[in-house]
Amino acid sequence: MSTVITLPVLLPMLGAAVTVVFARSPVLQRVVGVVVLAVVAALAGVLLVVADGSGPVVAELGGWAAPVGIALVADRLSALLLLVSTLVTLAVLVYAIDQRIADYGRGTASTTFHPMYLMLSAGVSLAYLTGDLFTLFVAFEVMLTASYVLISRRTTATRVRAGMTYVTVSLMSSLLFLTAIAMVYAATGTVNLADLAGRMDALPAELRTVLGLMLLVVFGIKAAIVPLHFWLPDSYPNAPGPVAALFAGLLTKVGFYAMLRTQTLLFSRDEPWTLMLVLAVATMLIGALGALAQNDLNRLLSFLLVSHIGFMLFGLAVFDAESVGGAALYAAHHITVLATLFLVSGLITRRTGTVALDQMGGLVGTAPGLAVLFVIPALTLAGIPPTAGFVAKLALLEAGVGAGSGPVAVAGVVIVASLLTLVALVRVWVRVFWGEPRPALPDDDPDDEVVVGTAATAAPMYAATAGLVAVSLAISVFAGPLTAMTDRAGVDLLDRGPYRVAVLGDAP
């Protein structure tokens, strides 16, 4: 298993190299990408089964034992998110391949898309599996460098400006992250997470607070929590549809995963975290209210993405095993549902030629399959029973109700934010699918990455979107076992013992 844990990182990197070498063979590029991600998804499933049954799986790279060497660690949390993220990455790749075939033909190769796509997948896998802070920094840089290329391919001046905001904020957060790592190493003499879990408690309380807040700001920017979210609503809506779906599904959740991992492993707490409760409330409400004010479908979805990061923050703020496990379950659900909604938005844009809600209408009659693909993830995001969103929110609410007056009040905000989400999505349904059908608007920029205003949508694009809907429904069907497993993951996160023993081989 120590070999298996390295493959989700190595295979996409090797696949990226192959797609560069065979840049003039579009068929080979597409086959390599799909096969590599399918194998990684299978390996992630194996890691999840082993980690849940036997404990964390550890690989010591280069023959150097932790804490000196680099360790890769797959526990319940990282393996679950790796599996869900890889399934989303695979579905979005199928969607992107068939979109390109529909728009440019089968013989058109891409010299950048497939290598950068696979490198982004490798960065995401490394972020989930790494066992030390500096390698986490490297993972983020691999992931973000690939995303810089993907967000700026064959784009317009407006998209370039939005991409510059994304790049600038990402670089600033990376610089802050590197500074935080240097401070952690200066204070403790290590960057290994398992080793830090034992050394951090020995530091003065004031220094621990400073280090904790620095890491919170770094990962808060990457997760787009309020007030550090300002870059996201201008960046994601301007990316091509598949790229926006991939970013919405993965990047912010990797940031939240890093926040969840470091705050639980390095900074123990015995009571709910007041600062995080405040941030959760602000993120939920500002995101939901921002969505209600939008006429652009992608901007609306971007604000809802921000809002629902607040639900995960609520689970972290309560800071007990049940709430942390609920946050992990909500993250897994959120990865699938947001990626699905952005893919559906891309399908809607192809038909209507616009992202403006007031210029759409009547799609329930002209594209009933598209209406179904929208309504299922929309109800899931709003948390309507018995969807995966309802199961995840119920886990968070149950944890919050028993944790004191502060979490109980925030649990009420969770319900309000869910109602606001439902209102925003009903508004989309009424504007886009009800009413009289409208003619498609012409493509205002035929030279950009996406052809719009056409009904020529390849069937595999619908199939890929439907596959993500099926993943979301599977979370609902297997809600019992998944909830039990994320509860066990929550216990492990707060206990810290199993992680330390697996990596260092000593008692906590």
Automatic annotation (TrEMBL):
Top-rank taxon, per record: Bacteria
Transmembrane segment boundaries: 33-50, 80-97, 109-128, 134-151, 163-187, 207-231, 243-260, 272-293, 300-319, 331-349, 361-384, 404-430
Alphabetized UniProt keyword annotations: Cell membrane, Membrane, Transmembrane, Transmembrane helix
Compartments where found: Cell membrane; Membrane
Pfam families xref list: Proton_antipo_M (PF00361)
UniProt record similarity statement: Belongs to the CPA3 antiporters (TC 2.A.63) subunit D family.
Sequence ranges assigned to domain NADH:quinone oxidoreductase/Mrp antiporter transmembrane in this UniProt record: 131-414
Topology term for the membrane: Multi-pass membrane protein
Coiled-coil region list: none
Keyword Hydrolase: no
Name this polypeptide is given: Na+/H+ antiporter subunit D
Keyword Cell membrane: yes
